[in-house]
Write a structure and sequence with these properties.
Keywords: Disulfide bond, Repeat, Signal, Sushi. This is Sushi repeat containing protein X-linked. One of its GO terms (cellular component) is autophagosome. Pfam families: DUF4174 (PF13778), HYR (PF02494), Sushi (PF00084). With about 450 residues, the protein is an alpha+beta fold. It has 5 domains: about 90 residues, Complement Module, domain 1 (Ribbon), CATH 2.10.70; about 45 residues, Complement Module, domain 1 (Ribbon); about 80 residues, Immunoglobulin-like (Sandwich), CATH 2.60.40; about 50 residues, Complement Module, domain 1; about 130 residues, 3-Layer(aba) Sandwich (Glutaredoxin), CATH 3.40.30.10. About 15% of the residues lie in helices and about 30% in strands. A hairpin with a 6-residue loop joins β25 and β26. The longest helix has 13 residues. The N and C termini lie far apart (about 165 Å). About 20% of the residues are buried.
Length: about 450
């Protein structure tokens, strides 16, 4: 009974119902859209809009009332683009009565922002700025890449890394000359040294700061020893380039000379360097024998012979007072004490004071000559040496010394009459006067250097 009823119902179905079931799963209507037999609303499951196909995308449709076809009137479709693509248009479409979908959609390939060109460099890309494109940065010679070398355009339309930069990290190059070795000039402890100022070279843009020198500049007088010369340059990125070299100055020297016993030495320059001159002199009462001056020669040997200071020998057997005085010329100062008799109190007092100041007399190169008595019992004395009466008289007459009164005469090393006293003079007053003489001032400097002084 049941099967007979089903067969009867199927026979009674309208013709258009059978025709609508003729294309299962096709999604397309076998009839033209203007066939009245399939017009809405007589059949809601008839394909109505064109099938949706989105390149690089996927479509998910839902027919009304759960119908089989996915493009009937009222169908709603969700559109999704594949990875790397983005939807242009509505993400949900509806099949409308005008047989058109509610919007036009398109999946376009995603595009990242255009990369900025790094200064002093560039980049190369496989596929422009589109999704999954790889771009590689590079720098011009002299610059170093800072950041990621390769970036990829991601699905979120951003690059995989931060933009790279080309930075100048390589220091500029500068080359100094080789070490300079020189010998000091004659009679000097220095030598003038010249060289070309080195120039720096930048590996990047070629722009450098001024060359900065640390040390003496070329053309300077360099003293003995090692001298460090350093040049520094900076580029615009403040990278520093440095080079250095040394200047070595040698002083050629002879062996060191010393003052002779009872004498002095005075040398130029450093005393024993090539070209230096050493002059010798003796203290009062001594005469120089040998070379008065010696020079350090290029073979590092001294010229001349070793000097010595011998005790001065005074010859009282000369025939004239002038010949006697010539023996003291430029060597000794004379203090001539004259008295008519040895019993003279001024004479005795004066000798006593001079004897107590013998160190001061020697320091100032003073020789005391005593003239005692009157002619013909006249005698003269220089230390332990006795002068003949005739020579003593000549000396009084030559120097115009009074015969019958006590007097004192001071004569300098050049034979000049410097001061006359008619009474006793204290050694301090006498020394103070002598110390004002120009030649004595030079002697004082030498004696101070030699450490000669009276206690």
């Amino acid at each position: 009974m049941g099967s007979s009823s089903v067969r009867l119902a199927l026979l009674l179905l309208p013709l258009h119902a059978w025709l609508s079931l003729g294309f299962p799963g096709s999604g397309y209507s076998p009839l033209e859209d203007d066939e009245d037999v399939f017009s809405y609303p007589r059949q809601k499951d008839t394909p109505w809009c064109s099938p949706i196909k989105v390149k690089y995308g996927d479509v998910y449709c839902r027919a009304p009332h759960g119908g089989y076809y996915k493009n009937v009137l009222g169908t709603r479709c969700d559109v999704r683009c594949r990875k790397g693509y983005e939807l242009h248009g509505s993400s949900q479409l509806t099949c409308q009565p005008n047989k058109r979908w509610s919007d036009k959609v398109l999946c376009k390939q995603k595009r990242c922002p255009t990369l900025s060109m790094p200064a002093n460099g560039g980049f190369k890309c496989i596929d422009g700025a589109y999704f999954n494109s790889r771009c590689e940065y590079y720098c011009t010679p002299g610059y170093t890449l800072k950041g990621e070398r390769t970036v990829v355009c991601l699905d979120n339309k951003s690059w995989s890394g931060r933009p790279a930069m080309c930075v100048d990290v390589e220091p500029p190059r500068i080359q100094c000359p080789s070490m300079k070795e020189r010998i000091a000039e004659p009679n000097k402890l220095t030598v003038r040294v010249f060289w070309e100022t080195p120039e720096g070279r930048d590996t990047a843009d070629g722009i450098l700061t001024d060359v900065i020198l640390k040390g003496l500049p070329p053309g300077s007088d360099f003293p003995e020893g090692y001298h460090k010369i350093q040049y520094t340059v900076y580029d615009r990125a403040e990278n520093k380039g440095t080079c250095k070299f040394h200047v070595k100055v040698r002083v050629q020297r002879c062996n060191k000379l010393h003052a002779p016993e009872n004498g002095y030495i005075k040398c130029s320059s450093d005393g024993n360097n090539y070209g230096a001159t050493c002059e010798f002199s003796c203290i009062g009462g001594y005469e120089l024998q040998g070379s008065p001056a010696r020079v350090c020669q290029s073979n590092l040997a001294w010229s001349g012979t070793d000097p010595t200071c011998k005790a001065m020998k005074i010859n009282v057997g000369v025939r004239s007072a002038a010949a006697l005085l010539d023996q003291f010329y430029e060597k000794r100062r004379l203090l001539i004490v004259s008295t008519p008799t040895a019993r003279n109190l001024l004479y005795r007092a004066q000798l006593s004071m001079l004897q107590q100041s013998q160190c001061g007399l020697d320091l100032r190169h003073i020789t005391v000559i005593e003239l005692v008595g009157t002619y013909p019992t006249l005698i003269g004395r220089i230390g332990m040496r006795i002068m003949p009466p005739a020579l003593t008289l000549q000396l009084r007459l030559l120097l115009r010394i009074p015969l019958n009164t006590f007097s004192i005469l001071l004569v300098d090393k050049h034979g000049m009459d410097k001061e006359r006293y008619m009474s006793i003079v204290t050694p301090i007053s006498l020394f103070n006067l002598i110390d004002t003489f120009p030649l004595r001032k030079e002697e004082m400097v030498i004696q101070a250097e030699m450490g000669q002084a009276c206690n």
